[in-house]
Design goal:
Elements: E1 9-16, E2 19-26, H1 29-42, H2 63-75, E3 83-87, H3 93-100, E4 104-108
Parallel strand pairs: 3-4
Antiparallel strand pairs: 1-2
Helix pairs in contact: 2-3
Amino acid sequence: MHGLIPYHTHALHLQLGGVDVELLAIQNLDQAIDQLCELIESRGGTEDPLAPDLCPYFGLLWPAGQALARYVEGLGPELKDKSVLEIGCGLALPSLVAARLGARVLATDFHPDVEQ
């Protein structure tokens, strides 16, 4: 499965400690899974739409990501010129905050619909 599914999204505007962040998030996970199921069916239905490597969990702003971003925000100047690695970043809010605070960031996610 390659290529981006045109998930229905909405813009999120956040401010963390003076750092403005705008994210585009999946509007509704159930609807996104339905879109994925339709695509899989149109391709012969051989893939499991709820398989962890296909389900579009990456496109939601999870409470844990928000909490981690607030923690990163609290580090403030300590992050300047530091290296940060976020694995399974999804929307990468903690990475975006770290980068805006001067860190060198590598944010990764394995989902095939995540833009590289």
